[in-house]
Amino acid sequence: MTLFKLSLRNARRQARDYMVYFVTVVLAAALLYSFNGLIFSREINTLSQTMEMLPVLIALADIVVLCVFGWLVAYATRFMLLRRGRELGTYLLIGLENKQAARLFFLENLVVGGCSLILGIILGGLLYQAFRAMTLALFGLPYHFSFGFSVPALALTAASFALIYLYALARSRRYIRKAKIHDLIYYDRQNEGVVIQTGRRRLRVFSVSIVLGVAGTLLLMAGNMSLGVLGAGCVILFLFGFFLSFASGVPAFFDKRPWQKYRGQSLLVFRTLTAKLATMGTLMAVISVLFTATFICEGSGLVFRGIFVGRASENTCFDLYIGMDDMQRDHSVYLDYITETIPVEKSVLYQVYLSGSTQMLDYVSSQTAYYNYSYDQDPILSYSDYAALRSIAGCKTAELKEGQYLIHCMTYLEPCLKEYTQPLVLGNTSLTPGDIYTEHLAQGGWTSNGRGYILVVPDEAVQGLTVHHRAYAAKTAVPVTQDQYEAMTYLHNEIVDWTESQDYITTKAREEAEIASQTAITVFPLYYLAVALTMTAATILTIQQLSESAHYRRQFLLLQKLGMNRREMSKTLRTQFAIYYAMPAVPPILIGVPFILNLCGAPEPGVMTGAFGPAVIISAALGIFFLIYAVYILLAYTSLKRNVLPDSF
């Protein structure tokens, strides 16, 4: 058999034996090609004229992911060399030279890498269409399917893969060319070893690592860049200290509690687990670091998306809104321009008043985390103007009963305002609280409809009240274009120096475009990175687990002879498997959940609500994380159970 045919046979066997690794490398190539395709996409290049950072950030995310996948390939290549060292040593015994054995290993892995690249690019073409469709949908642009391959993206992906594989294989080839027969045959016995032995040193390291974990999590939540970097360092030290001391700690735990050692399958489960962790404590720590970064990326992406949508939602209720702060200035230039260039279906020019008191302001400030920078008195709106605004925003009619006033507020203020019973006195008129409404009504800025809340009173009750500002809201027949928005901004600058004015101009189309651009710039790269990190960490865990199939099978055959039935074996295998996959995932959740909850509280109140509430974001982040992780767990468990448990009894 020629060296080339032997390489092909081994490549087929390697792909079959390490199917999880092979599939992950295919997906890695698909992800790289799809995002490289976005970098060179004509539509993305057009969008990047208004978002200069978009292609740069996609490229940076691509570089980080390339490094992650490079580490995966380097680790897997070394791991396969470790598992096949005895085979390569045997080749040397039967007469092959070192350089021939090195060439054999190089060629067979090159075949696997080449096949992965080809399949990955084909899959990446479809994945690119999905990413392209999502990106265009964010900006409200039409999508037309046009399957094809981007030559620049194809060249960049091929070059990236060549760099990854050639570097990893060159290191292995260099080792084989210099290795002795003894080194190769016993290469699989080179384990990591227990770094920290038993005794006080282990206990000290474990205790210090827990302290570092708590301190690191708190520093990550401090909201300061320098402290955040320090916190990340503490978290990394915690994970390494925890996993390096855990393998030594389990025997000590059972030595002090011998009655628990022999309960059920505890001895078998923890002896096998300890032996596994003793040889891969450092690797477990690295995987846990990757999972921590994954969970934080996923949670942060959801939080950022929630901030973008939450802040813009108050302003997207009107197609066009202009808040005018100076009552002495002539703002007719805005209205003249709108009349000439923008087709308007409904509009209202109105005034926002001040009540002359701070009774509700004081109440909400004392009852909740109220964020105010606009009003020093309670804001007032006449009922007729409020009804017109609701009609323009597409809300149902709100009824104002005689002798009452309505409250319109953001959802986060509704619970405390339901308990508010104080009457509102305006001159000689006294009004009692009526219904509360919480639809979006542009309540987030200086010249808006109240800061978080506004009181709606009968038209006659506003007579003699101080005017805070004027405003204009409209529903247009077609969306206001970016050019029209910029023209109105230019008119504003012509009226007064923008540094001296609080005039506020916004359009629904512009706010939606801002949401889309901010999502594309931040959320897409974060999730791209998160998927790559999860795939890499889960693949390494699965390769390690499946590589022990023969050892586990011998173990369970012996247990069968000792009288253990299949049901007990299945339970033992499930327990070992669950603990093995849970260990690197639990610390990231304990670190990530407080971090994400703290991040949810960073923006002003009223932003992270509804579908982007803290509880929803945590649940979604956990769901996304475990959805990808569960695929690998299910594949590994199914394969392991089929290969390990004896077929007959």
The computed structural class is alpha+beta
| Contiguous runs where pLDDT drops below 50 for at least 5 residues | none
Q: What is the strand content?
A: 5-15%
Q: What is the overall pLDDT average?
A: 79
Q: Which range best describes the helical content: under 10%, 10-25%, 25-40%, 40-55%, 55-70% or over 70%? A: 55-70%
Strand line-up across the major sheet: 5-6-4-7-3-2-8-1-9
Distance between the first and last residues' Cα = 41 Å
Overall outline = elongated
The total count of helices amounts to 23
Largest sheet: 9 strands, mixed
Q: Number of DSSP strands?
A: 9
How would you sum up this structure, described in words?
This protein is α+β, with helices and mostly antiparallel strands and 649 residues long. The protein has 23 helices and nine strands. The protein has helices at 3-17, 19-39, 42-47, 53-83, 85-93, 98-138, 151-178, 181-185, 200-220, 225-256, 258-261, 266-278, 281-313, 332-341, 359-367, 383-393, 414-417, 482-495, 508-546, 549-561, 566-582, 586-600, 614-644; strands at residues 320-324, 344-354, 379-382, 404-409, 424-426, 429-437, 453-457, 466-476, 504-507. The radius of gyration is 32 Å and the shape is elongated.
